[in-house]
Write a structure and sequence with these properties.
The chain has 232 residues and is α/β, with parallel strands linked by helices. It has 10 helices and 11 strands. It has one domain: 3-Layer(aba) Sandwich (Rossmann fold). The strands form 3 sheets. It has a 7-stranded mixed sheet, sandwiched between helices. A two-stranded antiparallel ribbon has the order 1-2. Bound molecules: S-adenosylmethionine.
């Protein structure tokens, strides 16, 4: 297979939502579509009271840092399973002088861990107004095998969502959310999330089981590929 090495990985930076971000081969190259998720989050911050932002699968940190370029947020957590990605995200936060609490964790596990006990994270989340933003990997095995040739240089951990639907990580997150709500009883909890444009049907099916209020919204090309879920 002839593959093109992405120029972003040789010049080590990209522009996203009017700012420059450092990147390397351990993080996804930010996609323009994700700016629609950022815009929706900024709209949300301007219309609702929010105490805490949690970004899950932060990669280079583009989502929380772009939101922070437009609004002030008392408390921001950014999670990734990849320690290498967190190094880049921390660098970007430092370059932009922004204060984010970066956590290495499998989705929300760090907040659900029994040993967390009385730590500052656990205490600070109780009863808060929380917004979760996330662009989790959502590509399934078959699609992965037929992806564009430059994508093979991006980390598989950043793209591959599971073997059958690609929606498996979102399913795991939703199961964790139930536990999170029971543990922290947030006053308000909303999730804004990016998915693949052919996943609305599976999203309907899975979200329908939880009894949460949800809708979908589109990117700038009019393609519905984001979920807005009101948990409480
Ligand atoms: C699609 S990339 C998104 C990166 C960045 N937020 C963006 O929009 O460009 C998904 C990110 O999720 C991370 N990730 C994958 N599985 C994860 C898990 N189980 N828990 C936390 N992060 C995970 C990957 O390391 C990757 O950085």
């Amino acid at each position: 297979m002839n593959s093109t090495y992405p120029p972003e990985y040789t010049r080590w930076w990209v522009e996203f939502y009017y700012q420059k971000f450092e990147i390397d081969e351990h993080v996804l190259i930010p996609r323009l579509e994700t700016e629609s998720l950022v815009r929706e989050a900024i709209r949300y911050f301007r219309s609702e009271e929010v105490d805490t932002l949690i970004d899950i699968g932060t990669g280079s940190g583009i989502i929380p840092l772009s939101i922070l370029s437009a609004v002030e947020i008392p408390e921001v957590f950014a999670i990734d399973l990849s320690p290498e990605a967190l190094v880049i995200a921390r660098k970007n936060a430092e370059n932009q002088g922004k204060n984010i609490d970066f956590l290495e964790s499998d989705l929300l596990s760090v907040f659900l861990n029994e040993h967390l006990g009385e730590t500052k994270h656990a205490l600070s989340l109780q009863g808060k107004n929380i917004l979760i933003v996330t662009n989790l990997p959502y590509i399934k095995q078959d699609d992965w095998e037929n992806m564009s040739t430059d994508t093979i240089h991006e980390p598989k951990l950043a793209l591959f969502g599971g073997p059958f639907t690609g929606f498996e990580l979102y399913e795991k997150l939703f199961a964790q959310i139930d536990v999170f709500v029971a543990k922290y009883t947030p006053k308000k909890l909303t999730i804004l999330a990016e998915m693949w444009d052919d996943q609305t049907e599976i999203a309907w099916k899975i979200l329908g089981k939880y009894g949460w209020e949800f809708s979908f919204f589109a990117d700038l090309r009019g393609i519905e590929r984001f979920m807005k879920i009101h948990i409480r």
